[in-house]
TrEMBL record:
Subunit structure: Homodimer.
Gene3D superfamilies associated with the record: 3.20.70.20
Family of the protein in this entry: Belongs to the UPF0210 family.
Pfam families, per the entry: DUF711
Name the UniProt record assigns to this protein: UPF0210 protein JRJ22_17525
InterPro entries registered for this protein in UniProt: UPF0210
Length: 452
């Protein structure tokens, strides 16, 4: 049982260290909305979302007031639309995306995720319709987020889908070029996507989940930073213990909020995702944690080791605080959402290649990275393939959320606004990979995947 006293002990974390509950995300199954008629399906979807999430935002606001803990976002994730809408007779799921957007606006949530397809082993008709619909869907909606899973440690990497997604990302950038190609900020390509992730843009409600569920994402890089400042210069054992103890406290706050939200909404509690998700605010940065650890800038030699320490001990502390830690749970390294990462890029300390190395040990992958608008679709597919390979071989979730900003080049700044932040356009390796990407087919799963 968690007491209010435990939350009160974290008041300083909230007021001075940017501790927040980043999101309460309600997962909603749309499996019972299936119909062959698009209009009927859309009405079923709208009715179920608005009925299920009617009190979500108000409950979040009530909990903020009661416990004094900021809850930054209230979100919804739904069954991947390529599955839920698989029976619909249509050649476009754009109208479905618009219905999702309308439902999200009606209940007042910030984002709705699940305009998604799982194609790690191949595409169904519904998968292909969804993927082809992504550029227009993200251009004509405000709150819809999209994801495509192109690989897994069990299935290998679907290189046909990887090739296709390079083209889809370019199309999405073109469709939203009047807004610095922001459509791509709502699109992520995964390997080993998880079914209970509460964070956008990759959230969807997996087919193995309950009818409805509440998942909570907690974030506290500022809290970790302050704690490490107290042990500056001490040995690695002390460093690790400090991260674990702090992650435990942060997770307990999320546990209380999750349990209360579940109780008040009458929806089962799913998981706590303890992901150190930064914001553009100074003092709420993963890169600044690295500096406290002893690195001059993120990207300096030792950065990957520092990130491995951070990620591992956040997980260790979290699992001691809650029996149901899930989602992604670790350290995110999105460039545009982290003041320190932006500074490191501007100073030349952090490159795309170093970020790729860091993704071997971080929570996800290449996240919120602005690249030149002239980048070819084959190069983007190559970047996706590299990240998927890291995820496949290391049996971890990896992802790519890159934004080819049409009309901008290396060094120029892009402003996305809100939690999406701002970013310098980063250089991309100029050498061609088209011959590799265009081979087609599937990269087989690694030998260690055969564990039965």
């Amino acid at each position: 049982m968690i007491s209010r006293g435990e939350v009160q002990e974290t008041n300083q974390m909230i007021s001075e260290m940017n501790l927040d509950v980043r999101t309460i995300t309600m997962g909603i199954s749309l499996m019972d909305c299936a119909h062959t008629d698009l209009r009927v399906f859309n009405q079923n979807v709208y009715d179920k979302i608005t009925r299920s999430a009617e009190k979500l935002v108000k409950t979040g606001e009530d909990l903020e007031r009661q416990f004094g803990v900021p809850i930054v976002n209230k979100r919804i994730s739904v069954t991947p639309i390529s599955i839920a809408a698989g029976a619909v007779h249509t050649d476009s799921y754009v109208p479905v995306a618009q219905i999702l957007d309308n439902a999200a606006k009606e209940v007042g949530v910030n984002f709705i995720g699940g305009f998604s397809a799982l194609v790690q082993k191949g595409c169904t008709k519904g998968d292909r319709i969804l993927i082809d619909s992504i550029p227009e869907a993200l251009a004509v909606t405000e709150r819809v987020c999209s994801s495509v899973n192109v690989g897994s440690s069990r299935s290998g990497i679907n290189m046909d889908a990887v090739k296709l997604m390079g083209d889809i990302i370019i199309q999405t950038a073109e469709r939203t070029k009047d807004r610095d190609s922001i459509g791509c900020a709502k699109l992520v390509v995964f390997c080993n996507a998880v079914e209970d992730n509460p964070f956008m843009a990759g959230a969807f409600h997996g087919v193995g989940e309950r009818e409805l569920v509440i998942n909570v994402g907690v974030s506290g890089p500022g809290v970790i930073k302050r704690a490490l400042e107290e042990v500056k210069g001490q040995d690695f054992e002390t460093l690790c213990e400090t991260i674990k103890r702090t992650a435990f406290k942060v997770t307990r706050v999320g546990q209380l909020v999750a349990q209360e939200a579940s109780k008040r909404l009458g929806v089962p509690f799913g998981i706590i995702d303890l992901s150190l998700a930064p914001t553009p605010l100074i003092g709420d940065s993963i890169a600044e944690i690295f500096q406290v650890m002893g690195l001059e800038e993120a990207g300096a030699p030792g950065t990957t080791a520092a990130l491995a320490i951070l990620n591992d001990n956040v997980k260790k502390g979290g699992v001691m605080a809650s029996s149901y830690v899930g989602g992604l749970s670790g350290a995110f390294i999105p460039v545009s959402e982290d003041h320190g990462m932006i500074q490191a890029v501007q100073r030349g300390a952090l490159t795309l290649e170093k970020l790729e190395a860091m993704t071997c040990v971080c929570s996800v992958g290449l996240d919120m990275i602005a690249i030149p608008g002239s980048t070819s679709k084959e190069t983007i597919s190559g970047i996706i393939a590299d990240e998927a390979a890291i995820g496949m071989v290391n049996n971890k979730t990896t992802a790519v959320r890159v934004i080819p900003v049409i009309g901008k080049d290396v060094g120029e700044m892009v402003e996305f606004g809100g939690l999406l932040g701002y970013a310098p356009v980063m250089a991309v390796n100029p050498f061609n990979c088209a011959g590799f990407v265009n081979r087609g087919g599937r990269i087989p799963a690694p030998i260690h995947s055969f564990k039965n």
